[in-house]
Amino acid sequence: MQNSTFIGLDVHKATISVAVARGERGGEVRHWGSVPHRPDHVRKLVEKLAADGSLLHFCYEAGPCGYGLHRQLVEAGHDCIVIAPSLIPIKAGDRVKTDRRDALMLAKLHRAGELTPVWVPDPAHEAMRDLIRARATGMRTLGKARQHLQGFLLRHGRIYPGKKGWTVAYRRWLTTVRFQHPAQQIVFQDYVDAVADTEARVARLTAQIADLLPVWSLAPVVEAVQAMRGVAFIVAVTVVAEVGDFQRFDNPRQLMAYLGLTPSEHSSGSTVRRGGITKAGSGLARRALIEGAWSYRMQARVSRKLHDRIEGLPQAVRDIAWKGQLRMCHRYRQLVAAGKAKVIVITAIAREMVGFIWAIARAVTAAPI
Known about the structure:
Elements: E1 4-11, E2 15-22, E3 29-36, H1 39-49, E4 55-61, H2 68-75, E5 79-83, H3 99-112, H4 123-155, H5 168-174, H6 182-212, H7 219-225, H8 233-243, H9 252-258, E6 263-265, E7 274-277, H10 283-293, H11 304-310, H12 315-337, H13 342-366
Parallel strand pairs: 1-4, 4-5
Antiparallel strand pairs: 1-2, 2-3, 6-7
C-alpha cells in the first residue's frame, strides 16, 4: 500500500479532474489538476504520475463517456476500475458538489476500498449490447409512432370496429380511412408512414442481431437459455447482453439483486418494512424477464416452438429448463390462489426465472456446447 497511489478521475466530455491519494493510511490527498479528455493528454498524465515508480490505481464513475478511458489505462499496464455511481457513499449533510471535490472523494474512497466497481465488457460484447439496445430504442419509438397515429384517429372519431389493433385486418382498415380536408389526410398518411418506417428499422436491427450472433462469444449461452419457457430469441439476447459474464455471480440471489428484482427494505430495530423491488441494474433486462414471466400462467408443457428451440441442446440444459417450468407454473397458481396481486405474482416468477437462467448459463460456460 505504501508504494501505491490512488487516483480519482472526475471524467467529463472535454476535461478530466484528477486527484491523488498516497497509499499509506492518512497519506496526502491533493487535487492534481485538470487535463483535456484526449488520449495523448491522458498518456502524458499517466507518465507523470508513474515517474516516481509507484503503483497506480485509477478509478472513475460509470457514465456517458463509456469505457475508452478504462481500456487505455489497462492497456498501459495500470489498474483501473469503473465505479457504480449509485453505490458511492455520500455524506447526508454535504451540499457542495464540484469537479475538484468529486475527484478528491473518489481518490480517498478508492484508497479506503469503499467503492463498488461495475463489470466492464470487452469491445465485442459492448458492440453487441449497443446493437440490442438500438433495437430496444426502435421498439420504444415504434410504440410512440403507433400511439400518435391512434391518438389522431381517436380525435377525429375514426374508431376501429375490430377487437385487436395492428393485425392484418387493422392495417387493411387503415387503407379505408378518409378525411375531408387535404391537410388531415396528409397528416394521417405521415403517421402511417412513420409506423411503417419504424417497423422496417426494428426488423433490420433484429436481422442484424441474428446475423452477428454466431460470432459472439456468448452465443452458446443465448442458445441454451432459450430452453426456458418465455425466453425466446429477443429475450435471451437481451438478458445475456445486459448481464454479460454469469460466472461473476456466485449464486442466483446475487444475479436477482443485480437485476433489481429483489424487494427493497427499510428496517430499524424490531420494525421490518419491505417495499417494492429495488429496480437496480438494467431496466431493459428486467422488462424482458417480466414479459417472459407471463407465459407461466398457463399449464406446464412443451409447445412446438419450445420443442424446436431445445432440439440439439444438452440433456442437462433441458432438465434444468423443464424443472424450472414445473416449479414456476406451480408457483404461479399457488400465489394466485393465495390472493396475491398479478403484478406481485409475475415479479416473483421473473425473479425465479433468473435463478434457472443462471443455472443454465453456468452449466454452459463450465462445459461449452
